[in-house]
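Record 1 of the preview.
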Amino acid sequence: MKTLKIIRNSLAVGLMLLASTLQAQYNTNPTLKIGDDAPPIIVQSWVKGEPIHQFEKGKVYVIDFWATWCGGCIASFPHISAVAEKYKGKVRFASIDSYEGLGDRKDEDAAVVVKDFLKTSKGQRLKLDVAVDDKANTMYNTWIKTLRRQGFPTTFIIDQNGKIAWVDANLDNLDWVLQQVLSKKWNNETARQVMTLRDALDDKFIATVRNEVQDQKNSYLEMIDDAEAFEKQFPDRKYEVAFYKLWAFTEIDKGKVPMLLEEMALNPRSKYINLGDAAFLSLRRDDLTKRDYIAIAKVQERLLLNEHNGTGHGGKSVEAYSELAATYSKAGNISKAIFSIQIAIAMAKEQKVPANDIEVLTATMSKYKSTKTDLN
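->
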């Protein structure tokens, strides 16, 4: 059972998420993009379900890449399995295990490794048909290595014409994009332009955070200008660049942060990973105003709505409600702080959290109640 030590340290997850972005491998000359023909399916074997030999015209496919050593992949199994169940009979889902031959496993048969893994409690959460890449890692080399961002998990949508319609390392918008593709409202050329401009902004973000630019302030100003130009061109895709603007505002124009946080919280397309990072990035500041805390609380409220929280980005939990209560307290909204901590205590009791941890939560509630009125 999680303890309050984890509750207190949970914001550190945000730092790890940002670090993982900076440490990812990037291809400076990607050759596979949205709108391109999907590469062929060439695997060692199918170890579960029905094989896919080729992409049939008129049918939509989701191809998800993973590995047994990839924690983020395993955490996403319930999410992608739920989406697959929703679109059963309408979309063909397939899971491709690749790059198993690492370290002391380089001489093992990947098919055997995967079959054994699928028998475990973690493996049984994956409800998709499963194939294993060949020893030459053909699927990885033709699908993943040719992308700008190389790594797992990575998920593709293949449209009715065998073209790549969408690719992402995050599943939050998979359901929405599938709806658009199935109804033939999705525009691959628009998606390609969006991906190209977002990636260019991401490159600038990475270079700035890594201190690879001569003038950081000017780089942040350019990030804001680029993001706002993107928003004008693609007003329905603001979620793609909101976090970059937030980072820049945090560095050079803090007064604009609260409104942007609220916009992110309200946008139905905002990714939970970005919302989680936004809350972390804001809460690590030591100059927050009540207005800031109010906006952060709205982001935290939105994070509670994540039904697929296996990757740690939101969802209802003792930690989430405890952190929300703390934010409301600092915002001066004591009634909501009390309400949130009461939910945390109820959940803790239901989950049989250790008694001393419940005592800490109860003491926190008493502290809030000692503040007789809201400070708004």
